[in-house]
Amino acid sequence: MTQTDDVVRLVHHVLGVEVVGVYPHGSAVLGGLRPRSDIDVLAVVRRRLTARQRRALLDGALALSGSGEPGRSARPVELTVAVHGDVRPWRYPPVCEFQYGEWLRDSCLRGEVPSRAPSADLAPLITMVLLGRVSLAGPPPWEVLNPVPRRDLEHAMLSGVPELLAELMSDTRNALLTLARIWMTLTTGEIGSKDAAADWALPRLPAEHRAVLAHARAVYLGLEPERWEPLLARVRPCAGQVVRALERPAAAHGVRLPPG
Questions:
Q1: Max Cα separation, the chain?
Q2: How far from chain centre, in Å, is Cα 173?
Q3: Ranges for the Adenylyltransferase AadA C-terminal domain (predicted)?
Q4: Helix 194-201 and helix 172-188: axis angle, to 10°?
Q5: How many of the other CB atoms lie within 10 Å of CB of 24?
Q6: What is d(CA 257, CA 260) in angstroms, rounded to the nearest whole number?
Q7: DSSP strand pairing (77-83 vs 98-100)
Q8: Quick one: how many helices (H) and strands (E) in the chain?
Q9: Is residue 102 within 8 Å of 109, Cβ to Cβ?
Q10: pTM for the whole thing?
């Protein structure tokens, strides 16, 4: 029994016949899990969740999700739930019914329960599910989900940049690699793994910024320990360089980006 199997079992235990399908996304479908990858799962359901179902999903996710630190078996779990009628037919921004990720652990342990809310992040998430073409339970994803229009995908990714910049010093590795992936997708139209995005971005960065992104990639692949102190003063300039590369497409989408 894998950790992914445990997540699928949790979804079925809590939601039962309301489950339409359960699908992987993220690294699992973009070249395979890396040492620092999360377990990313989308569950599509027929109806909105009850308060009891939200609490049960949250308790289960908290128990299953790990820190992802080297030498520990449990990976971080990101569990997202969407109501089928909220994402098919597609409209933007879509509504997320429930989402748990490790960045929410502290607030959830203080008593907060993830609630229903509009979420542009569902656009790249659903795009990855459809690219993966893998079902963990239920029909294949293309029978359940509509493709996300390119303009909505780009707008969603750009809309996430301010949050990434806000998390730059607290979640440095993930923020830098996600910025690189946004840059690659908006330039090439392709969504790749975080390390593939870094490979694409590194030769396009000025030489003085490459060490920062190279370290983020190496940590993600388990090749180096996560030590940012020697590079700390160079993190924001590196992110700022990527943000400047995104300014033109952001302006075309009417998205205002903060400075890096």
A1: 54
A2: 13
A3: 143-243
A4: 70
A5: 23
A6: 9
A7: antiparallel
A8: 11, 6
A9: no
A10: 0.93
Q: What is the residue-wise DSSP string for 69-98? A: -TT-SPPPEEEEEEEHHHHSS--SS-EESE
Report the amino acid identity of residue 105. Answer: R
What is the rounded distance in angstroms from the CA atom of residue 161 to the CA atom of residue 97? 22
Sequence-separated contacts (24+) of 27-33 with Cβ below 8 Å: 27/193, 27/194, 28/4, 28/132, 28/134, 29/128, 29/129, 29/131, 29/132, 29/133, 29/134, 30/128, 30/131, 30/132, 30/191, 30/192, 30/193, 30/196, 31/192, 31/193, 31/195, 31/196, 33/75
The token pair that represents 37 in the structure block: 């990858």
Q: From first to last of the 260 residues of the chain, give the pLDDT tens digit.
A: 899 999 999 999 999 999 999 999 999 999 888 988 999 999 999 999 999 999 999 999 999 999 766 556 799 999 999 999 999 999 999 999 999 999 999 999 999 999 999 999 999 999 999 999 999 999 999 999 999 999 999 999 999 999 999 999 999 999 999 999 999 999 999 999 999 999 999 999 999 999 999 999 999 999 999 999 999 999 999 999 999 999 999 999 988 888 75
Residues with a catalytic annotation lie at: 78
Provide CB contacts within 8 A for 141, sequence distance 6+: 21, 23, 129, 130, 132, 133, 134, 135
Q: Are 191 and 177 in contact (CB under 8 A)?
A: no
Q: Are 19 and 138 in contact (CB under 8 A)?
A: yes
Distance CA 234, CA 238 (A): 6
Nearest Cα to Cα of residue 98 among 144, 52, 149: 52
Encoded amino acid at 78, one letter: E
Pull the structure tokens for residue 34: 């890396």
The interaxial angle of helices 172-188 and 207-220, nearest 10 deg, is 110
